[in-house]
Amino acid sequence: MPTELEELVGFIADPKPEIRALATEHLVPYSTSQPSIFKVDSLKPVKNLKLLIKDHPKIAEHVITILINLAADREILESLATDEKFLDEVLRQIIIATEPNANLLSMLLANLAKWDSIKRVLTKKQPSPTELGSNDLVLNQLVDLFVKGADGSYNKNADFDHLAYLFADLTKHAEIRQYFVQKQDYDGVIPITKLKVFTEYKSNVRRKGVASTLKNVAFDVPSHPLFLSEDDIDILPYVLLPIMGNEEYDEEEMMSMLPDLQLLPPDKQRDNDPNIIQTHVETLLLLSSTREGREHMRNVKVYPIIRETHLRVDDEGVRDACERLVQVLMRDEADPDKADRVKEIGQDGNEDDDDQIVEV
C-alpha cells in the first residue's frame, strides 16, 4: 500500500491544476531530503515534472525548483540533461522577456551543465526575440541574456546571475573555449569580452562564475596573444583590478602599470571572496605559460600587485597561488627547468562553489 508521500508524488500529474499546485508545492522540501521518492517506476515522477515546466507559472516555479534540487542525483541528472526535448524547452523559455521563472531556469541550466553532453548546446539554434538583439545561435543568446539581463533590465523577474555558473562549466570543454575567443559575425564581438566587465560586479555569484569562466578559457594557450592584446580581449585590467586594494605603490612601479590600474581611489577595495581572488591569480598563472605572457606581465608590473595581494589576503589558497606566480615571474628565462604551468593548475582539483549543484 503506497505511503502518503508516494500518493503525493502521484498527484504531480493530476489533471486538475489546483491539485498539481498543492502537490508540487508540498514536494519541494522532499526534493532535497528524500529524492528517492521521485525515482519510482523508472523515474516516472521526473518524466512528469519535465512536462510541467510549461505549466501555470506558479506550478512551474515549484516544478523547476524540484528539478534544480533533484539534479544533485546522478541518475536524475542524466535523465534531465540527455532529454533533447526538455533541454530545448528550457532554452526556449529562458529567453522570453516575460518569463517569470527565468532565474530558476538559469539555476537549472547551471546544474544540467554538470553532465558533459550539455556541451552540445554549442550547435543548438533557435529564433531570437527581437528585444534580445542576438542571432539564432543559442550560446550567443545565453551570453547576450546574461549581459542584457543584469539588474532586471531585460526581464524584470530575473538577473540571470547563475548563467555565469553555466558558462564556467561549459568552458571546461575545449570546443566551448574556442567559441568564447572567436569574434561572432552578428555583432563583431568576442564573447569572452562581454563577460569580463563583470569581474567587479556586486553579485558574488556573477563575479565567481565569470572568474572561473575566464580561468577556464585561459587554458586555451594559442589564444593568449588575444587575451593580452589591448585591441582584442585585453583581459589583464579585469583580472587585476578585483585583487587590488587601496595600497600605495612607489611612483616607478605605478607609472609602469596598466593605465586602468593607476591612481586608484583611496576607498578602493579588493574582492572580499578569497576564492575569487585565487581564481584570478590562477588565471594570471595560466597566462604566464608562454614567454610572451611572462614578459608582458613583467613590463606592466604585475609582480608588485601580486606581492601586495600575498601580504594582505589571509588565505592559504591565495598565498599559494601568489607564490607560484611570483616564482614564474621572477625566475631567469634561461632556467631550463620550465614547468608546464597549465597542467600544474589543472581543472580536476578542488571544486569551487560554482562547481557545485545549486539547491533552492
UniProtKB/TrEMBL annotation:
Alphabetical list of Gene3D superfamilies matching this protein: Leucine-rich Repeat Variant
Domain of life: Eukaryota
Sequence ranges assigned to domain Protein HGH1 C-terminal in this UniProt record: 283-335
UniProt biased composition (Acidic residues): 349-360
Segments of skewed composition (Basic and acidic residues): 336-346
InterPro entries, per database record: ARM-like, ARM-type_fold, Hgh1, Protein_HGH1_C, Protein_HGH1_N
Region of interest: Disordered: 336-360
Domain Protein HGH1 N-terminal as annotated: residue spans: 94-278
Family, per entry: Belongs to the HGH1 family.
Name the record gives this protein: Protein HGH1 homolog
Species of origin: Daldinia eschscholtzii
